[in-house]
Amino acid sequence: MNEKIPTKFLKLKKLADVPRAEYIDGPPAKELRDASKRKSFLGMLRKTPKPVESVSSGHRLVSLTFNAAAWMRVPDSTQQTVSLVICYKDRSGEYAMVVDEADISVDYSLMLSGCVTIESIGMPEYIRACCAGLSEGQLTFVDELHVQKVSAESTSSDRLKTA
User: Fold this and answer.
1) Mean pLDDT over residues 74-80, rounded?
2) Which residue, among 136, 144, 110, has the nearest Cα to 15 in the 3D structure?
3) 4-19: per-residue pLDDT in tens?
4) Which residues contact 128 (CB under 8 A, 6 or more apart)?
5) Residue 66 above 80 pLDDT?
6) Are the C-beta atoms of residues 72 and 110 closer than 8 Å to each other?
7) What are phi and psi of 38, to 5 degrees?
8) So what's the pLDDT on residue 96?
9) Beta bridge partner(s), residue 109
10) How many Å apart are CA 120 and CA 95, to the nearest integer?
């Protein structure tokens, strides 16, 4: 299991925000046929997240698993290790979890991928895909970036298929 690290200890470059629709559960597909329920859900996604409050015993622990992958090019980066990181902010602070890290090859491109499970106190205010290990002002080109929530159904069916 990955270890969460306070972001104040890392030099991160933000690649993209993970859309809130990816990690906030909405109504079932049948309910989305109803225009009022669909409008309510879309309004919830567009709202500004509530400000982070102090941790109290009333907040529940939310566990979210993400599958993330990035194809990146980092020119002028020989002998350098780069990491794909998922950052999130919850009621207790801002944290990061390393998805994958690798040394950059001769052609300056690499693919980083993996799964991380974040345990947030309450629903996260935001989730971002970031990169660590870059020098100040160093150029990075992201050719592809995917961050997708792993559903409980897919994880249980994967377990059933393995021997």
Assistant:
1) 79
2) 144
3) 898 998 899 999 999 9
4) 14, 15, 16, 17, 18, 86, 87, 88
5) yes
6) yes
7) -65, -45
8) 95
9) 73
10) 10
- pLDDT tens by residue, 87-111: 999 999 999 999 999 988 777 888 9
Burial of 114 (0-12, 13-18, 19+ CB in 10 A): middle
129-144 in b/e form (b: 16+ CB < 10 A) is: bbbbbbeeeeeeebee
DSSP string, 18-61: PPHHHHS----TTGGGSHHHHHHHHHHHHSPPPPP----TTPPE
Total Cβ atoms within 10 A of residue 151: 11
pLDDT of amino acid 13: 92
User: What letter represents residue 154's amino acid?
Assistant: S
Q: Tell me if 146 sits within 8 A of 69, measured CB to CB.
A: yes
Q: Which residue has the tokens 């409008």?
A: 39
- The tokens describing 84, both together, are 């794909």
| 9: CB partners within 8 A, 6+ apart | none
Q: Which amino acid, residue 38?
A: R
